Design the sequence.
């Protein structure tokens, strides 16, 4: 980066040096060919060439160059040398001052230069007045041109900055959406696998218990039902897992705004709660399901479904009793969907902590709701209570 900056400064310096040399050659030709005033003598040539030297630093220190060149130009004109020779250098100097400074500085310097020119031309009568108007027009033109280009560059730089900022914003939005999508898939996989594997484990235990309890009087119907329940659970889990993995295999646009990334298929909702209850019943739990809610937003319905799924999974896994009873209530109240799941399990809650409650809290937070979960206190059991707003601002 430093080498690139130094190379840029060297290139600018070379350009300014070439310009200064070119203007000096042009001024010499003008002084020898045409223009008002006498041809330069030794002093005149010295002044004419000397006033072009500071132009090599015109973009690095424009005010310093101005302070050096103006006295040289004024003295040159005062000696009545060819007045047209230094005109090009004067115009380039004024243009540089205007394009590198503020509007206030440009106007101030322009007024000072015009005033100095009028003082120099004051003793030339009407011819001097006419020439003064002509020179003033050139001065104003150069200052206006420099100011216009300066404003144009500023507007262009601002537009580029806005475009870069918008691009950064799009990239940040894409990264945020990708992170949210990963979190959503992780929650779905956790809920799906935890629920399915737990039920498969319970149903397998039931089948093993039936086989080991009395081999001579094998209850083939009970074993067949347990195995059928395991097969149904596996098929359901396989279908949901395939749907989730299809999202991962889709290659949407990198910005995450359109395309397959958002084509997630229908979200689970309240209509899937009876299937969850039936699956929990197949695992041996007594489930009392009560749903009293009209059509709810898809995100709220999906959150409620996953909360009930996780709560039933935890109840079956940690209930610790054969006659486990789980009560599930889903109803609307004051612009919100209330989800309550309680069980009378006797589990201690010991064991390796998982991500079930964390996932539930994240789902509730994603729709702006609140969640309470914990033991029932003096009574045995566990309770999960969630409030999911149905519209913005609801509590």
Sequence:
């Amino acid at each position: 980066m430093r080498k690139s900056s130094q190379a840029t400064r060297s290139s600018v310096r070379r350009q300014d040096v070439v310009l200064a040399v070119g203007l000096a050659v042009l001024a010499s030709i003008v002084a020898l060919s045409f223009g008002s005033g006498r041809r330069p003598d030794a002093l005149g040539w010295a002044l004419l060439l000397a006033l072009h030297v500071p132009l090599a630093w015109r973009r690095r220190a424009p005010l310093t160059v101005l302070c050096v060149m103006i006295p040289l130009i004024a003295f040159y004109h005062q000696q009545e040398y060819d007045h047209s020779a230094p005109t090009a250098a004067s115009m380039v100097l004024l243009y540089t001052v205007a394009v590198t400074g503020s509007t206030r500085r440009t106007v101030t310097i322009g007024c000072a230069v015009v005033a100095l020119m009028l003082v120099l031309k004051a003793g030339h009568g009407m011819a001097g007045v006419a020439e003064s108007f002509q020179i003033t027009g050139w001065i104003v033109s150069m200052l206006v041109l420099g100011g216009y280009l300066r404003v144009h560059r500023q507007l262009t730089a601002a537009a580029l900055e806005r475009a870069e900022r918008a691009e950064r914003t799009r990239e940040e939005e894409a990264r945020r959406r990708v992170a949210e999508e990963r979190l959503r898939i992780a929650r779905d996989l956790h809920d799906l696998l935890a629920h399915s594997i737990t039920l498969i484990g319970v149903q397998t235990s039931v089948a093993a218990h039936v086989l080991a309890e009395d081999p001579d009087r094998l209850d083939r119907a009970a074993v067949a039902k347990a195995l059928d329940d395991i097969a149904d659970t596996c098929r359901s889990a396989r279908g949901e897992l395939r749907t989730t993995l299809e999202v991962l295999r889709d290659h949407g646009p990198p910005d995450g705004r359109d395309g397959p990334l958002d084509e997630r298929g229908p979200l689970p909702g309240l209509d899937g709660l009876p299937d969850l209850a039936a699956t929990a019943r197949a695992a041996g739990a007594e489930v009392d399901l009560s749903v009293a809610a009209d059509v709810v937003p898809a995100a709220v319905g999906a959150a409620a479904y996953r909360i009930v799924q996780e709560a039933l999974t935890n109840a079956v896994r940690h209930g610790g009793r054969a006659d486990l009873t789980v009560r599930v209530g889903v109803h609307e109240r004051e612009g919100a969907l209330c989800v309550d799941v309680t069980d009378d399990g006797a589990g201690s809650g010991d064991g390796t902590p998982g991500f079930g409650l964390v996932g539930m809290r994240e789902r509730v937070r994603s729709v702006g709701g609140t969640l309470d979960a914990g033991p029932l206190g003096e009574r045995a059991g566990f309770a999960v209570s969630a409030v999911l707003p149905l519209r913005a601002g609801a509590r």
About this structure: The CA atoms of residues 203 and 226 lie 6 Å apart. The two ends are 55 Å apart (CA to CA). Confidence is low (pLDDT under 50) at residues 253-264.
